[in-house]
Every structure is written in structure tokens, then in C-alpha cells.
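Quick start: what a row looks like.
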Amino acid sequence: MEFYSHGKLLLTAEYAVLEGVKALAVPTKRGQLLRVEHSTNRTIKWQSFTVEGKLWIDCVFDFKFKCLSANTSPSGVIDQLVTILKTLNRLSPNYFAEGITITTELEFPRDWGLGSSSTLINNLAQWLDINPYQLLEETMGGSGYDIAAAQSDSALFYKRNNYEPTLAPVSFSPLFKGNLFFVHLKQKQNSRTAIAGFKSRKEISAETKDRLEEIGALLLITEEQSSFNALLKEHEEITAAFLEQTTVQERLFPDFKGQLKSLGAWGGDFILASGDESTIDYFVQKGYPTIFRYSDFILG
């Protein structure tokens, strides 16, 4: 049995999506594969491979989810897998009664922040036919938009609602899409840490929430890149205000001629750059060579 999920990026309402703000998300062309095979051994064997084909998780569990052996697995990963397996067993009782081998294969580097955890959770939920949003909440936590993107072939609006969110697929294909790029900042963010930090701050005002949703809707219909850039800038300034941080453009790229926008957890992972044909050279010269054109990276 094989299952596949797309990676994700959140274009609008980062952090605010946790408070029920409708967010614009996009699935990426790179994702994660899960393969499940039955075996004669009375154990659960787990192997995970990086995009380069390197084995980075290699462990065996008994049916009580005790780790019997582990090789190459980073610190903390085993405990996380035990939590996931126990939750799967509770939501789909008595499934783990015969030997199985679980294999995962990533199509992107783990430090890109495209959803190595969410694609795994969605694949596991497909396998056992359980609610992926519930599985996410009871294991990793988060808003759930990454689960929606994992299942989608196009951009979508996502609004959190416990285990039954509101999803609305949309067409997002700006006339100037050739001038949109995704740049990796080489600073992997821990989503759970970022979420915890956000929740410790004061609640976002109703007016701010409404404006963030308006910006998301306007980004879909804006025909001029200059107007698009103005909306990105406003969104950045709003988010910077309630996070009490400076924008990535102010902090790292004040001489960039276009407009930059952080995506997801601020301070790392990918940013969106709205520029021109000189954009790739600009970031390469700045020491950020991992950069993709929108159409090469995003589905739909």
C-alpha cells in the first residue's frame, strides 16, 4: 500500500490562522511517500529516507510500541514516533496485530519547512482511514492548514474549525507569476515553538483579522504587480505589529527593489519574493542560492 501527500506553504494569515482567520495556502510539487508492507515478523519496523536516499530513521517496535532497536535516528524522534503509533492505535484499535514495515521517502530536504511532519500525518491517516486533523492535533498540534494542502492539487482558502475545517479550492495564477519566487533562508523554524510563542501574546483584534482575510481575497484578483506588492507589504506590517518583530525585508534585505513576504513561522524557511528577472541573481549574490520560480515549485 502506498500513500502520498504534498508539501505546503502558507501565503497569508500566518499565526492568525490559529485564531480562525481564513488563510491562503498552496501545495508544493514536492511531498512525501508512505509505503506499508506486511511482514512475518511480529514487530513494527520503521524506516525513513531523506530526499538524497539516506536512511535517517531506522527502528523496530513491538506491539506495545516499545523501541526494540534504533539506528541513525536523531534524538527525540523515537519518542515522537511512539506518540504517533500509540495515537494511531487508539484511533484505529487493534490494527497493530501483525508484523508491518513502514517506509517513508521525502522529496525535499527536512530543513525546508515544507511539512515533513504534516505529510507524514496525512499519509498515516489515509492508510488507517482516520481523521487527519484529529491525528495532527493529538500528536503534533497546529492549525491544520498543512493537512489541507497535503490533500489538495491547487491553492485553497482554509479556515480552522476543530476537526472539520472549511476548505475552498481557488485558482491562484497571477498574470505576473513569472516574477514570483520562493527563497529558502537556511534557518529552519520549529513550528511548535513558533506557535507557542504566538499564543503567549495578546489576541489579534477583530479588525486585524478581517483585514488579513481581505488581503488574501484581494491577492487572488489583483492584476497589477505593484498592487500585489502593496498588499504583501501591508500584510507584513500587520503581522510584524502583532508579533512585535521587524519584517524580513527590513532585517535582511533592505535594498531589495521588489517586495518580500515571510511564510509560515517567521524567521526562517521560505519567503515569497515578488521581483523581476534580476531576483535570482540578487539572492544568489546575497548567499541564498536555493530559489525557485513559482511555477516550478507550486501545484495548480
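That is the whole record. DSSP finds ten helices and twelve strands in the chain. The first strand starts at residue 2 and ends at 10.
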